[in-house]
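User: Study the shape:
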Amino acid sequence: MRSKKVFFTNQAGDRLAALLDMPVDNRPTSYAIIAHCFTCTKNIKAIHYISRALTQRHIAVLRFDFTGLGESGGDFSESNFSSNVEDLLCAARYLETHHQPAGILIGHSLGGTAALAAASQIPSVKGVTTIGSPYEPYHVLHHFKKEQAEIEVHGEADVEIGGQRYRMKQQFLDDVQGVTMHSSIKRLGCALLVLHASNDDTVTMDNAGKIFEAARHPKSFVSLDNAGHLLSRQQDACYAGGLIASWAEKYLAVEDSSPPVLSSRDDDVVTASIEHEHYYTEIDARGHALVADEPLALGGAALGPTPYDLLTAALGACTAMTLRMYADQNKWPLDEVDVQLRHHKIHGKDCAECHDKTHKVDVIERNIELVGDLSDEQRQRLLEIADKCPVHRTLHAEVKVNTRLI
């Protein structure tokens, strides 16, 4: 995904910092907003992976820091649950003004509760996802039970949450204790996806049950098993992101919105984009999301095929398509084609057919299995046709790659 910093102002005029995550081809079909957990920021890993899963489905994501947190301005001690909801509404107005209205709201922990409260005030929203969210905002008070008495006596106190110290005031306690969510959840007016880990000891699973019970259909509930509250493990966050992306597509597909603004790129452009995650690379090919990576032994994370895997896959796919086409044209009884490929390098001196004996030579071993009631002559002809597939021809032809900076 392609990320860029953007800013918008909250109701008090403070500047809030955000990241706008875009698909690698810069052609989003819709937009989502992600609200982070209590005292977290937009940069926590779980939100990053969830956003990446959405952008791979061409859903752009705005993730922002609430007032007084991360890179956002304002005084955290003056913020509360109600101001978080207002921040979300300001984020939605920013998207509507500068891009297109948000179709999905996603919230982690208290951010999910805020998303539930804000959704009915954003007409464009077709769905809300909560991840480990409390049913009522006052649930966060368990973080500083010991300091509550001091706050009630002195009006404020320093509290420690997640290893960080924050100034909490009486106004925060009054605000979260004065909000009830049942009516907000009941009047959502859009689809709901509730995600919660069964081993979440920060916000227990019964909160998810109450949210789900209060909501009207369409609604879905998926357990994240032992993912924990913060979804700290990459595989858990990626799993949640994939679930959300698949679920969101169903409801965004019926959205009657203006078409996305397309870039000046041609439709046949393939885009590859890499950030800082070692060698993990996202690819967009005519709107289809692919990934590439390197094996663990080479410093990658093995999250996708290698570039050479993709190269041999292209040859395999082209071979299979070409044989399918040829057999269909000749009405031959070819039921299935399986192509197995392996790429490796050998020294030129070990290659009897190679002219250059001084450099390493790329070798692709290709084994083709033809399933069907074919004659020996038909099988031999299909073997010959395999060498005529367009990608095969390209690999054997002189190829020029013209490179320029843009």
Summary: The radius of gyration is 27 Å. The first helix runs from residue 45 to 55. The chain has two domains: 2-143+177-252, 307-396.
